[in-house]
Amino acid sequence: MTRLADISRCFQGVIPSVVVTSDGRGIPNVTYVSQVYLIDEKHVALSCQFFNKTRRNLDENPRAWVELHDPLTMQTWRMRIRFLHSEKSGPLFDAMSMRIQAIASHTGMAGIFKLIAADVFEVESLEKNEGFLSEAAVDTSEQTSLDGVRSEVRGLQYISEQINRADCLEKLLEAVLESLDQYFGFEHTMILLVDDCTKRLVTMASRGYGESGVGAEVAPGDGLIGTVARERKVLRISGLSAELRYGRTVAREHGTPAAEVPLPGLADAQSALVMPLLIGDRLVGVIAADDRDPLHFGEWDEAYLHVIANQIALSVDRITASDDDDDAPVISVAAAPRSDNRRTFTFYANDDCVFIDDEYLIRNVPGRILWKLLGEFQRDGRTEFSNRELRLDQSLGLPAIKDNLESRLILLRKRLDEKCPDVRIVPTGRGKFALQVGAAVELVER
Amino acid sequence: MAVFVGTVSPDGVPAGCRAIAVTSPDQLKTVTVYLPMATSRDVVANVAATKRLAIVGTYPPDHSTMQLKGTTTGVRLASDDEAEFVHYRLEKFADILHAIGIPRRVTRGINHWPAFAIDMKVEEIFEQTPGPNAGNPIR
CB contact, 8 Å: B86 with chain A? Predict the structure, then answer.
């Protein structure tokens, strides 16, 4: 006998399910439902968004019939179910609502597409729709072999070691993304950390997207990543393409202004796995992966990434909490090669924004830090700086606790690498760095 | 177009089935819907007992959807003359799904012949495209 867990792919929402109900007079009604949620072996929940007729029918006749599709084989399964109750709050509602909220926010439909209720049903029977396919559906799902498990455990061990050894935030984030690609096949990934000043998420590292997108910001509640940050819950979505294509088209047609730094991401992503980086209830950041395969991320991946996310969160906290060390030796670095280039930095004091040759570079605290460094370099020829002196400089506006200075410096360093390689920030020891200027620099303040 | 039918048994147990084709000779006053014999046993039994039928047609690329409800006037085995039309509609369905990423060979694998043909007198038509007008009567 087939168990509901055996057909878990059918519950990923890649192909909409069909629901048939009937009113008290025996008039049938057919509708599509975006989400059939597997609660346990005896219960499922249907998302109640628009289908008022279905809802009214269930009050008159609690019996319903559902056809589910396996998105890999196209085989269909039929369930007879009986309506029990609706939930408008609580863990089940939150879990189902989060997916809808995330897609709605991502497509500019927040507040319009929303979950009204999670309707809970008892499953009376489940049967394979024999004869639906003319040839036996070939199950192409990957079987988890022992070798596969061993490889993933080795991957987990490797990532854990990389995280443990990392002595700076930049190495930590890069090592994690590289290892996820190598051992878990997560080719398109990014890590965003919370900026405690702005309360926004800032992209600190990415892999597999072409443009790095470092510096791209996401507000809590905005899109898939912002929804995960706000709810502090994991989001695993399959079958994204149609909804996201629609939303992106709407945004384009409405002329939504482009972000200063576009968030990296696959334009044709079909699945996504987004996870909060938490220490207790405190949000440190978000790790996100997407893929063109609608079924790329399974429960197995979610479980592994959860372990890794916990380790990342702890390590980010450890590294950013203790990056001052006045007694640490200073490593000498080669001076930047001089060029004949002339670069103009413009600081807009109104919004703490720095442009390089009329192109946006960076804003907020990292922008103020850059302005300080360039000013001291130009006035006094200074090139050696320390994290401690930045912390003591109240004009920079760093918060007294959890200032995330290390992550702000990484962000600044990467933005300079991308937009102005003539000016570099080079670590020279724990809590110390050098400003290397390889071009004539003009500073303009407006 | 994706077509699905819904029925209910005399004791109130709903059942449904994917249809392969639907056609109307008179601007949706009456329709004939074709169901694969292999998967429509419950639906045909319900229709024989209650004569009530709901038919939903959806265009998958943009989710535009319409629902027809009415009373059936006949159930028969589709004739050989109708086979070409049923095959043709499945091919068109395969083209539509191919455009949104489902390979044609997958859609062609859906069992579609022999088929039952159910004739229905249309009594109500509803808009069912997801959005604020879903559920509004069209006719």
Answer: no
